[in-house]
Amino acid sequence: MQKENCIFCKIANHQVPSYTLFENEQVLAFLDLSQVTKGHTLVIPKQHADNVYDLSQADAQAVFAAVPEISRALQQETGAAGMNILSNTGKVAGQSVSHFHLHLIPRHDKHDGFGAKWEVHNDDYTAEELATIAESIKNRL
Ligand code: AMP
Ligand code: ZN
């Protein structure tokens, strides 16, 4: 279903133009208008979902199923040495458009424009604490 005033629903329904790379019944991939690196692509389900929490399993499968082929094409076209694939969920994580999307960002080197601060806290958790955390989450699945 389309959500009113959702820019990505409008793109999925071809009411707003995009630089489309890939399309099938459930999925659309198009260039991000703000290119972090050349070829920076967004992959979306055509069906509206605000974020990963309300993404259906079918749409998740369809979106991720399209990713390897699109990634290979991006890699071949840009000669990228690597790729970051990510989804921002919620404002705190940097989500600015509330329609689930994956960013595919071809990577060349550490100074190509992409950065994700990633501090690790290995020493903050004992093995016992990690086991408790895993068990608590597992109980919700
Ligand atoms: P995020 O900040 O993770 O929600 O990503 C949203 C992305 O959508 C941003 O990188 C924007 O540049 C991109 N964007 C917003 N509007 C459009 C549009 N009409 N066509 C293509 N990309 C867009
Ligand atoms: Zn939408």
From TrEMBL:
Entry-linked PROSITE patterns: HIT_1 (PS00892), HIT_2 (PS51084)
GO MF term (any one) = methyltransferase activity
EC top class named in words: transferase
Q: Which residues form the HIT domain?
A: 7-114
Q: Which domain of life is it from?
A: Bacteria
The alphabetized UniProt keywords are: Methyltransferase, Transferase
**Swiss-Prot/TrEMBL GO biological process terms:** methylation
> Which Enzyme Commission number(s) are on file for it?
2.1.1.-
Q: Which Pfam families match?
A: HIT
> In chain numbering, where does the motif Histidine triad motif fall?
99-103
In terms of PANTHER family, this protein maps to: ADENOSINE 5'-MONOPHOSPHORAMIDASE HNT1, HIT FAMILY PROTEIN 1
The protein's name is: HIT family protein
In its UniProt entry, the species of origin is given as Exiguobacterium antarcticum
Its organism's taxonomic lineage begins at:
Bacteria, Bacillati, Bacillota, Bacilli, Bacillales
